[in-house]
Fold this sequence. Notes:
Blueprint: E1 7-13, H1 19-24, H2 30-37, E2 38-42, H3 51-64, E3 70-74, E4 77-78, E5 85-86, E6 89-90, H4 91-101, E7 104-108, H5 110-114, E8 127-128, H6 130-133, E9 139-142, H7 149-162, H8 175-178, H9 189-194, H10 204-207, H11 226-229, H12 253-256
Parallel strand pairs: 1-2, 1-3, 3-7, 7-9
Antiparallel strand pairs: 4-8, 5-6
The chain binds iron/sulfur cluster (2 copies) and FE3-S4 cluster.
Residues 182, 222, 224, 226, 237-239, 245-249 line the site of FE3-S4 cluster.
GO molecular function: 3 iron, 4 sulfur cluster binding; 4 iron, 4 sulfur cluster binding; electron transfer activity; ferredoxin hydrogenase activity; metal ion binding
Subunit structure: Heterodimer of a large and a small subunit.
Keywords: 3Fe-4S, 4Fe-4S, Cell membrane, Iron, Iron-sulfur, Membrane, Metal-binding, Oxidoreductase, Signal
Amino acid sequence: xxxxxxxxxxxxxxxxxxxxxxxxxxxxxxxxxxxxxxxxxxxxxxxxxxxxxxxxxxxxxxxxxxxxxxxxxxxxxxxxxxxxxxxxxxxxxxxxxxxxxxxxxxxxxxxxxxxxxxxxxxxxxxxxxxxxxxxxxxxxxxxxxxxxxxxxxxxxxxxxxxxxxxxxxxxxxxxxxxxxxxxxxxxxxxxxxxxxxxxxxxxxxxxxxxxxxxxxxxxxxxxxxxxxxxxxxxxxxxxxxxxxxxxxxxxxxxxxxxxxxxx
Length: 263
Ligand code: SF4
Ligand code: SF4
Ligand code: F3S
């Protein structure tokens, strides 16, 4: 049964592009979640307050609701503090403290789950994932760049409804969303099985919807639910839009992506 009291959520952004927050807002039921189940106490993009007000509110929530609040981290965390100071304080230190007092910690996006773009070689800011920052704290990883809204909301809902994190795989991702590769359920897979491939974007094979494997598609080694769940409550995905998968939910995808991204 749903608890009547709303759960405080503190959403901290480190080195990020805010795309994960943007994606989160695309869930059809996000309003109900925000208004009925949680109190979003801190989010750089969504909080009405700013400056001292919002920082003070965050501090009081972390203190008053120790062991009760859910911490969401978006973005990789730079070990070089000078790259991320908010209100004169190191965000790295703030996230460590917030993670230690949280009831649960969720990493939204490949930046917080794996390091993502900020940690791409040569990683000048020495950015790390939340799990690397606080190895002694359990973290549920929801990778993707960004993750699909329903995957983020679904993970959060599981925590709120069952009062426990969803079952995770050996890498820390919820099994219910990351159990299959993009390739296993890809709508172009029948062409892969028949050996029918696009040789270049826009060629005859591409226009016929053939498999994009020869164009560097990372679907066979990428665990995500975009081909089964689709984006924005529709059956659309990067592959249905004509792009090969760049493996956005996998570790180091910025350094290991298709060759066309590394020219
Ligand atoms: Fe932006 Fe992608 Fe990082 Fe999310 S995971 S903050 S969308 S770069
Ligand atoms: Fe697999 Fe990519 Fe081909 Fe889809 S387009 S079948 S994911 S290789
Ligand atoms: Fe990302 Fe590949 Fe899906 S790029 S959104 S995992 S098709």
